[in-house]
Amino acid sequence: MAGLARRGSGFLRKPRLWVPLAGALCAFGQAPWGWWPLTVLGLAAVMLAVGRSRRPWAGFGLAWLAGFAGFGLALIWIVEPFFVDPDRHAWMAPFALILMAGGLALFWGLAGAFAAWGGSRPLARIWLFALAVLALEALRGHLFTGFPWAMLGHVWIGTPVAQIAAVSGALGLSALTLALSAGLATGWVRARHGRRWRAGLSGSLVVAVLAAGWGWGSARIAAPMPEASQVRLRVVQPNAPQALKWHPDHAQTFFDRHLDLTGAPAPDGRAPDMVIWSETSVPFFLDNATGGLDLAAEAADGAVLALGIQRRESAPGGPAAYFNSLAVLDNDGAVSAVYDKHHLVPFGEYVPLLGGLAGRPGFEWLSGFAARALTGYTPGPGARVLELGDLGRVLPLICYEAIFPRHSRAAQRPDWILQITNDAWFGDWIGPFQHLAQARLRAIEQGLPLVRAANTGVSAVIDARGGVVQALGMGRAGTLDADLPAALEPTPYARWGDGPWHIGLGLGIFAIAVSRWRQNRLTRRG
Known about the structure:
526 residues; six-stranded mixed sheet; 12 strands
């Protein structure tokens, strides 16, 4: 027994052996699992490993290993697009996952290096690591167009704690996660040094903070909601597998399915005021519909129809520009509004830096996986609120745009948010549910209902507190008929956004760096 204990103790003294497991545990708080206690515990273990690192390279290496394992598991769905056409692209799947996980892990690695450089004691390094991870989570939402997926704060979506986002946004939820984990790590360090009462105090504070957040969120959810509007919506989900969606033998079948579902009798006999189709739901361009829009309007039978469609603009003397768009057909079937997606998916809808070569012989792959146009898509001018008369003001988001909190904050406050998406690219297990979770978070942040039309799932009507009113799951063709939920008053986050976080985190990191630099100068002089 003594030998086993010594071997176990030796294992714990070699964090490079167990820190990847701790990092992987962090991923299990994300959808579809939602096991947030594992994230808090796994992150606390990572912090203990970083806290023992006295050299920046050691801190970087351990934190990078943890981040690589965590992001690798949380983002394993990233391989799915490569198996839509496996003969051409499957060989790239492992490289995409390794590069994505390894690149995102650099943010954790930098935080570990900063903690080891800036902290002289384990407890200081633990809390510096928490601060640096939070600052870098804010940064990765913007750097290289941004990718705020699998944030630590996302583990609270689906719990009452997520309501804190109405005040603080996703970064506030990440700050809570980091604080809870740092508190647990602090208690462990204190217990190891025989400071039992201080360890108990740390544990008690962790429990108190979590209980306060849970209680406040529960009270907010329990508060009365305004009555839903009288606007009846129909969301159409065709369930078109990505490998078949654009196939010449199947495209017409899926378009006909849209028409049939749109014109189907309502379960309660109440006709919809608006029908919503998903992203790129039709096999033709807006400028060359050849009667397709007339058929769609006829199926809508006088209801307003919003549909995802590709759009083409000819440029005199140059190549045409292609857009991933949402078009609105009014009650008479005429195009009354168009929104062009402005935040495109790198490597999915365009290839950064090299996209100008797309369309040339031998370079067709540079258009990106999701772009049907050989030259890739062109970004639209930016966020736009559409005025739809009795249907209210709607902020459209197309697929990827819903993961960015800043895209839900328009200059003019909308009455509701509409997301159309084609989650068939994400597979049918992890990716679509993480995407749905982030849409729920946007509703909480803004205090606005969000209606989501997905190609293969998950389509949903979400209320202004992030609750799923109705949903149509993966792999199902059908419709959702529901009244549009009511909006709440603008939340604090809707007014402030992430600006206070950016300012506070920037000043905090700068102050610590200056203090450490001065300390190093004094040490060298001494």
